[in-house]
Amino acid sequence: MSDPLGERDIAGAPLAVVARAAEPYLASLRDRPVHDRAQDPLLDELDGPLPDTGDGAVAAVERLVRIGTRAATHSSGPRFFHFVVGGSTPAAMAGDWAASLLDQAAGLWLTSPLAARAETVVLRWLKELFGLPAGFGGVLTPSATFAHVAGLAAARHWWAAGHGVDVASRGLAGLPEMPVFTSGLVHVSTRKALQILGCGRDTLRTFARDDAGRVDLEAMDAALAAAGGPAVIVANLGEVNTGDSDPVAEMAELAERHGAWLHVDGAFGLFAALSPRTAHLARGVERADSVTADGHKWLNVPYESGFSFVRDPASLSRAFGAWGAAYLPDADEERVNYNMLGPESSRRARALPIWATLRAYGRDGYREMVERHLDVAAHLGGLVEAAPDLELLAPVRLCVACFRYRPDGVPEEDLDELNARLGAALLADGRVYAGTSTYRGMTVFRPAPLNWRTTRADVERLVDVLRELGARLTG
């Protein structure tokens, strides 16, 4: 096969290959292992030299689909509990296919009024979903890390202006270190964003009153008073090991008292606002200067999806706009150019899967899903507490259960090594997926059931498999 122009009359044929494979593949997710290592040799079929003469679209896509449906890690299924990963609702998946089909240049209103209008609409819907003020500005990003980059870039511009410098134009040279204060619940994505922004990932100062990382407000208050100028506070809503959260409202009080910028990392914890049972955890978010969250976690839309909201809508354009390129059109209130509000210039229409899923299931559907996941996580915590060889290490607050394998007769000093081996065995087994982390110096499991397909039966299977494998390891 040569020039793709020769396939213009059959351009829909490779899409039909994927469509035919989709229904049986999706139906199989209920029963198949999350990862079957016996299929890994298929990955070699992806390799080889670049062909001089191609196979043609249908043959190439048939090969890709055959390998992928067998050898992929099936993280879109109900038993992928590793990290904090959602799935893709039926509507979101179809919306993502539509985004690829339409292939919009989504950065400028001129190139795609459809993408720009859809992004404007979904940002408004998300603010309504989370209870954020309607006046907040926002932008969709590829991830929570990029959402942090957007929000903290706005904070950096605000901070530098306090020193009389337009940092977007002049950079950081000659400025002091930007003070950034947080708790021990901070996620590595915040540090990475500061690294990308040139502020330095290790300049972040943490104030924790215990080994779980809970914030020491008195120490932070004193540090803000001693800073002698503007500072940034990062509040964390939903920590990845336990689901714990900072007291956002109290940190908002600190920010207002000291004239600081409050940035809230709500990667998955922001969804606590959807349920009356957990809404108190998100109290105070509406007082923040910038708020971030992940779409490919609890919203259950495909990768890549994040969002960043800011109290002052103009702060994003100050941080990312005004390129001075003659070929780029100016924006106005009706025709937003989103590539001037975030770190990306070339952007896909990632608003379309979000629009599709929010239109399909609405506020009530998402509240019901979040509350089901709260119940599933609580059920998992109860199973752990009832098991004689498992130990729950923190209260189940949101969608994360933190525990370890602790059978009788194993000395305390051997438990970390045993749990690390058990974590490796669980991933190698592949029936369910949940890796290990470190919490309060201990090697732990921290499964997060927030896939739209996940039910109580799936976490029951996790516990059964863990105990089965643990019994094998300990003889």
UniProtKB/TrEMBL annotation:
It holds the Pfam family Pyridoxal_deC. SUPFAM superfamilies: PLP-dependent transferases. It comes from the Bacteria. Gene3D superfamilies: Aspartate Aminotransferase, domain 1, Type I PLP-dependent aspartate aminotransferase-like (Major domain). This is Glutamate/tyrosine decarboxylase-like PLP-dependent enzyme. It comes from Actinomadura coerulea. GO terms for biological process: amino acid metabolic process; carboxylic acid metabolic process. Signal peptide: none annotated. The keyword Iron does not apply.
